Amino acid sequence: MKLGIVINKPKPIENFDLTFYHVKDVSGKVNNAAEQIYNIISCFGDNKTAREKPEWVALSKNDKAIRGNKRYNFLWDWICPTNENYIKYLFNLIDEASKVNIAGIHLDCIHFPEEEYCTCPRCIEMWEKSNLEWAEWKSNVINEFIEAVSKRVKGNFSTSLYPDPWLSKERFGIDFKTLTKYVDFFVIPLYDTSYSTTYWMETLARSFRKQIKAPLYIELYVGHPKPPIKNIIKAMSLLSNYSDGIIFAAYDASIAEEIQRLIK
Description:
Blueprint: E1 2-7, E2 18-24, E3 38-42, H1 47-52, H2 84-97, E4 104-108, H3 121-130, H4 134-150, E5 156-160, H5 168-172, H6 176-179, E6 185-190, H7 199-211, E7 216-221, H8 229-239, E8 245-251, H9 253-263
Parallel strand pairs: 1-2, 1-8, 2-3, 3-4, 4-5, 5-6, 6-7, 7-8
């Protein structure tokens, strides 16, 4: 079983098979590409762009897809996935990162923010012209975006999936079967602040594993405030039955080193 780490410094962490680092996170902050590790780009989650270009934010009949949305309590702001100018910006980030000796590109926030998004005039026009059902049209948009990225990436290519194994297509436009054609592996974030119970993780991981034939990694949160290490190891042991590896979202190098010592 492979082990990976998400870290806040642009350098590989020894004794881990995969190291991940954000070159663009949901705040909109952009860092320089990092060599020999997986460069994470948060796609349609972007607080900075939403603040500077509010007309680019994904819409619904009820509200914008932004923090403060009372219906969905979004943790960050979402840009419409059909905005060509924003997609060109993401392509440029991917192209720049691919110029250095990276291990690969990893994308998160690759989808529509929720089932009723986006109803901006552009999306409505595109949907009506497609003659497709709403969920099929949304998944086509995401499939085409991921396919285009796969042709630009130098090195391995992976994406995060929202942790809903049952309704991802209807809600977000995420079609597991089609995306499998374009990526080398998927990452499922299953975050908790304690990991004191594990049945829900097993249910989700088992359901994803049954549907996805590509390599599948489970991401556990181990940053501050740090869950008890014994609970993290218990969760890791359980989830290893349904995944090809575990990725620890540590960010802090000292936490990564502590985990290394305990699992050797």
